[in-house]
Design a protein that fits this description.
Length: 219
Amino acid sequence: MDLVDRLNDVRTRIAKASAAAGRAMSAVDLVAVSKTFDADAIRPALAAGQRVFGENRVQEAERKWPALRQETSGIELHLIGPLQSNKAADAVALFEVIETVDREKIARALAAEMARQGRALRLYVQVNTGLEPQKAGITPGDTVAFVAFCRKDLALPIEGLMCIPPADENPGPHFALLAKLAATCGLGRLSMGMSGDYETAIAFGATSVRVGSAIFGTR
Ligand SMILES: *Cc1c(COP(=O)(O)O)cnc(C)c1O
């Protein structure tokens, strides 16, 4: 299978999982995670019509995407890795969506940069559903207050929640927890599910799935 076959396979599985969950196929967006892959590896996905991509490092994305954007219009880039506040200006300039807002300092830095640059990004709050010490994200217990702070105090356009369940656990309960927290916050968007579990995530209400290796191959 080449990249286009794998991409089409993922699209078919998303459509089937959406139908099985009684949801419209258009209810789930595919974020193709291109981290570690260079521009030459990404071009076939663009040629196949994929426009939404995820990168986990600001500097790596800065090296690849300006050239690709010159070749192809309509690209939507999502930052899915941890963001340091000294990179907030670069991230606001490059990405359309930041999925990893997880603390007050970065929320304030993003609010300031979006105002300064006049750019309205879409944002997700990352939740550390497994309370893993090495993983980024706000704790589930702090999520409702943090989302309220971002929206009310900083007027940030938070549109949903994002999580990365622990690698060695059944992801279902984590997806269910994220969905419950989003409902409590009145947020409609859920970024959850990766190559190994995106069909499960769709069953639990994912509105976007972040799929890397199933499309681009092993890293
Ligand atoms: C790498 C990554 C993905 C994609 O993982 P795959 O298992 O390759 O699909 C999704 N989300 C985040 C946050 C990632 O860092």
